[in-house]
Write a structure and sequence with these properties.
Strand order of the largest sheet: 4-3-7-6-5
Number of strands: 14
Shape: rod-shaped
Structural class: alpha+beta
Radius of gyration: 51 Å
CATH class of the largest domain: Alpha Beta
Number of domains: 3
Distance between the termini: 42 Å
Strand content: 15-25%
Order of helices and strands: HEEHEEEEEHHHHEHEEHEEHEE
Length: 471
Amino acid sequence: MVKRPFAPTIRTRLTLWYLAVLGLILLLFTGFLYLQLRRDLYNQVDTALELAATQAQESIVLEDGRYTLQATANNQDLTRRLKEEYSISLLNGNGDLLAQLTNDPEIPVLPPDKAGSFTFTREPDMWRVYSLPITLPGNNEMGWLQVSQELEPVADTLGTFGKQILWGLPLALLLAGIGGYFLAGRALRPIDRITQTAQAISGQDLGKRIQHQGPADEIGRLAQTFDAMLDRLEAAFRREQQFTGDAAHELRTPLTALKGQLEVTLSRPRLAEEYKSTLEAMSQQVERLIHLSSNLLYLSRLEQDQQRFSTETIMVADFFNALLDQIRPLAQEKSIEISTNLPTDLQFCGQMDLLIRLFLNLLDNAIKYTPTGGSIALKAAKEDQNIHTTLHNSGQPISPEHLPHLFNRFYRAESDRARSFAGSQSGTGLGLAIAQEIAKIHHGEISVTSEPERGTTFTVILPETAVSHPS
């Protein structure tokens, strides 16, 4: 046996894909937050530096031809705060240091080339520097006021935020993975039930179903489709079993009879007339077997293909008049009178060939079981969007105990119900079963009533218009 490579389950793959997409989204989002926080912090520092530079202009003093940055009577508190929080340098237009107010004399002074802020790095420290062009008091020369602040608080804040991301992101992915694995399992649970149901199905038991109770989403539609497939499969198996059972049941007796006749005939030499008589009897039996097998196949295909026929609108009067033209010679042989009441404006919808077979079966039975000189009445009327067709024949009624079984396969209500193959009038017992199946696939009904001294009446109800078949 070839060993298959390991393949993760759909549940695992869904979880991994979910984590990969979520991880990428979280990484991009936290990266965006980090950059946004960094920009906001730098903007805050730049705003503070710009304000400090503006305020520091009040501390510029010219004494004895030299510039200093010192507190005056009006700005002592401001100057002290600026010295504690910032490093302030006064430069001339050439970038030479004129004065400085700082607690860290090691901070380098960088000649500015333009106004604004920039970042200066001297390992391991970083400073943010803001340069403000000014006019030096006293000589009105161009100068620069440069304010610097160490970025250690900003770096600490960004570092703390980065650590939170490094710890929080894996934790979030872990929790999301656990939740995603659970939710994926719950979402795929109907598929597990489908698998279990499929494994439990056998040729002897096709009745199991998923019976999905959840929403009609993709999984729900899959479960419903699977149940519908099982319904069709069970119906197909039932038809096959019905067909094989019927064939075995109905063919066994005539085949045994044929074999017996052959054995008896061949048991000793006989005259040519005896062989001819035996062959003629066997020919009748073979003809009946052919008719029986044809009806069995027709009924089986009818049940299987009931949603595949096309329908058309049929005028009731024209339809039955054509059928009566075919069947009337048989009635005339027995002097049977056929009366009709067929309104010309009535119509029903169906498949022409199937309906011809249905009503020919009924008309043939009516003539067969009507005594010589009897009568047959054919009527049609509209009731509640349906066409009710009744076929009544006089003669001996059907016994009440036979009526519930009359449409069963191979059931015959003749008084001589011994399955003799000699009588040409003996049927296969499938005609009414075929008629009922044809009525059923047209969304119609067929029923029978029979009363002493009044005869037998078959009623067929068919829709006036087409009825859509369920998919």
